[in-house]
Amino acid sequence: MKRIAILGSTGSIGTQTLQVIGANPELFCAEVLTANENVGLLIEQALKFKPNMVVIANEAKYSELKEALKEEDIKVYAGKDALAQVVAAGTVDMVVTATVGYSGLLPTVNAIKAGKVIALANKETLVVAGELINDLIRQYRTSIIPVDSEHSAIFQCLAGEGNNPLEKIILTASGGPFRGWSYEALKDVTPADALKHPNWNMGAKVTIDSASMMNKGFEVIEAKWLFGVDPDRIEVVVHPQSIVHSMVQFGDGSIKAQLGVPDMRLPIQYALTYPDRIHSDFGRVDFTRCHSLTFEEPDRKTFRNLDLAYRAMQKGGNMPCILNAANEIAVNAFLHGHLSFTGMSDLIEYVMERGNYMVKPVLDDYVATDREIRIVAEEWVKTNGK
């Protein structure tokens, strides 16, 4: 029985992880469940899955959570410090990092230091501090198994390849709801428009990042750290059908791809069961009905966030941390009507040009960078936003 801690159990990845656990009770149990704000759903999950511990990051909601679970044999905690600490519990075998944004960094660091296997769905952890995370993984002799569909695909394609020379990683992107749109047309996009992803069901932050192509930019940076590949050997191609989840090209010219229907439960289950595969009732690709798989080059001039992510990766140091903090402020401002869709890229580029760049940051530097950049970005929104 593998005991799972889920950071962000009430979000899209978290709820689907619980579906996988619920379908395989003989293999997995939910040991720890955590949430940021959604105390109602966290209570429902706790009553159903009977974890050992639950944590609500928002301390104002502790009393409601504690009262609802008073008859249960469940330890109840609150606050960001508790969120970072429960992952180190001796009863936890694997930590699924399903939170969104920078908030996943410190709990992931603590889990690694406790020797836990990380099922990584929080891409920002590697975007912000990829070099640090890799150093810690080596130091504490544990491992990361990617959960993102694209990185899971690459991970699966590399299985069994040993030291065979890897020539290129090819990350696929759906193109989001605005594929083919002009820059002028993007200026009038509303949050409601951007939240309509054509293929995937995700939370608001990830959906907006997908629409702006920042999500793909983050995945490029994540791929660099997960697979040790130089930036110039990571290629993005737009694949609107989202059937080919990513590919790898080897030194002999052969290409391996992982295919499947767009269902995040598949890479989640693979991460939980690795290196084994178990049966599932997820959908299957029907090639008699799938008449066309198309690929095209992304438009990095119109969707500038992808280009900004490449720039941050090539610069290195704390620049990806600056990129991420600016993007989190930009997305929040867009969702609340304070910034236009194209204004998000303007903000991010401005902050990247003025952030305090460090070549060799340590953990405290990343924390300080995130805090400082958010202040700069919020000031820019007040001055230049709607």
The helix-strand sequence is EHEHEHEHEHEHEHEHHHHEEEHHHHH
The radius of gyration is 20 Å
Distance between the termini: 53 Å
Q: Describe the main β-sheet briefly.
A: 7 strands, parallel
Mean pLDDT: 94
SSE class: alpha/beta
Q: Identify the strand order in the major beta sheet.
A: 4-3-2-1-5-6-7
Low-confidence stretches: none
Task: Please report the number of helical segments.
Answer: 16
Number of strands: 11
Oligomer: single chain
Question: What this model shows, in words?
Answer:
The chain has 386 residues and is of the alpha/beta class. Helix content is 45%, strand content 15%. It contains 16 helices and eleven strands. The protein has helices spanning 12-23, 39-49, 62-68, 80-85, 105-113, 124-139, 149-158, 183-186, 191-194, 204-212, 214-227, 265-273, 304-315, 319-335, 343-354, 363-384, and strands at residues 2-7, 28-35, 53-56, 75-78, 94-97, 117-120, 144-146, 166-173, 234-238, 244-250, 255-259. The strands form two sheets. Strands 4-3-2-1-5-6-7 form a seven-stranded parallel β-sheet, sandwiched between helices. Strands 9-8-10-11 form a four-stranded mixed β-sheet, with helices on one face. 47% of the residues are buried. The model has no long low-confidence stretch (mean pLDDT 94).
